[in-house]
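user: At home tonight, take the chain set out below, taking as long as you need, and be ready to discuss the fold:
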Amino acid sequence: MSGFELQTPEVGFSATAAAGAGIVVIRGSLDHSIHDLAVDFFDQVFASFGPNLIVDLSGLDLLDSRGTGLIVTCWKRAVGQGGRLALVGAEHGATRILWITGLTTRIPTFLTVEDALAALPSHP
């Protein structure tokens, strides 16, 4: 599977695979209004690409507590399945909550998707 996407008026999700990881790009608002759709989308991502995920947040306009909770759930799921979750674009204003809560000290963050891919452990 090469990739898939989900578009609503509030948010756009896309997912592709590269170098043994699923790359998810989120644009718009990740908030309570689309929480159930986002959960279903990430279920599909895990089923399609496995537990190594890179989530690009650089296109977010809004990240509320439900969206933050979803990121934490995905991080725990990835680690619990023997994978890793990394964030890209978490230095932007909409993701400030990740810094305030200290999540960026626990979840690896990178400036670019390429940097996050390079940090993944290599598989023989």
Q: What stands out?
A: Strands lie at 3-7, 11-18, 21-30, 53-63, 85-88, 109-110. The radius of gyration is 13 Å. The longest helix spans residues 65-80.
